[in-house]
Amino acid sequence: xxxxxxxxxxxxxxxxxxxxxxxxxxxxxxxxxxxxxxxxxxxxxxxxxxxxxxxxxxxxxxxxxxxxxxxxxxxxxxxxxxxxxxxxxxxxxxxxxxxxxxxxxxxxxxx
Amino acid sequence: xxxxxxxxxxxxxxxxxxxxxxxxxxxxxxxxxxxxxxxxxxxxxxxxxxxxxxxxxxxxxxxxxxxxxxxxxxxxxxxxxxxxxxxxxxxxxxxxxxxxxxxxxxxxxxxxxxxxxxxxxxxxxxxxxxxxxxxxxxxxxxxxxxxxxxxxxxxxxxxxxxxxxxxxxxxxxxxxxxxxxxxxxxxxxxxxxxxxxxxxxxxxxxxxxxxxxxxxxxxxxx
Lengths: 111, 222
Hints:
Chain A is 51% helix and 15% strand. Chain A has 111 residues and is of the alpha+beta class. In chain A, helix 1 crosses helix 2 (27-38).
C-alpha cells in the first residue's frame, strides 16, 4: 500500500460517518454526523474534497440522486463505502488500537 | 423575517469560481441547510471555504505550472512602476506634498491636492487595469484548463503582498504610512477610498484578462 492510499485523519472521520449513515449518505447528513460526533464546525467544501480523494483512492463510490425543490432544484450526490474502503478502515482501526494499547497517559479519558 | 433565498452574490461566487467537480451538489447541500435555518454568515463562510479548498486542491495538483504562472505574473507587476508597487497610502501622502511644492499650492489648500490625488488615482487605476489584464492573461495561459484556480491564487498572492506592505508601512511610519497627512487628518481620510482604486482596478483587470468574468467557469476546472 502506498502512502497515497492511506487514510488521513479527516478522511477516516468521513469514512466512519459514511458507514454510520448507510444508504442516505449525501453532503448534509455527512456534515451533520461529523458536527454531532466531533462537536466541531465542519466546512462542506472540506468534506467534498475528502470525498473526492477517497473516490480517487477507490474507497468510496458515488451516484447522483434526485433533485428536490428545497435544494434549488439541484441533485443530491450519494456516497457509499466500497469493500476496499471498508477493509482499509478495519486495517487503520487495528493499527490505531495497537498504538493505543498500553499507554497509561491516554487511559481514563483525561488528556 | 429571513428570506428563503440564500445570498445571491455568494451563490454566484461559488458557481463562477468553485473548482470542485461536485460544485452543484455542494451548492444544493448549502441551500438545503440554509433553508433549514442556517445563518447568512454561515452560508458565506461555507462558500468562501469551498472556493478556497477547491482552488488550492487544483493548484496543488499542478505545483510546477502554478509556480511558473505566479512567477510570470509577479515579474509583470515588478516591471510596472507605479504607486501600486510601493506602499500605496504612503506614496499618496508623498504625492500630496509633491503637488504642494510643484504647483506652489499652499499645503492647506487641500482641494487642489485632493484633485491631484484623484487624477493620480484615476491614471493609476487605468494603468492597473491594463497591467492586471495582461498579467491575468499570461497567468491563465500557463494552464488554460485550470485557469480559475491559478488566477485566484495569483490574486491571493498579490493581495497578501499588498496587505503585508501596508502593515509594514503603518508599523514603520505610523499614520503617515496610511496617507494621513498631518493637519489634514479628516480630509486625508476622505481620499482613502480613492487611493484603493488602483488596487481594485488591478484585481478586476486580472480577473478580466484571466477570463474569469466570462460565463460559467465549470469548463475551466477539472
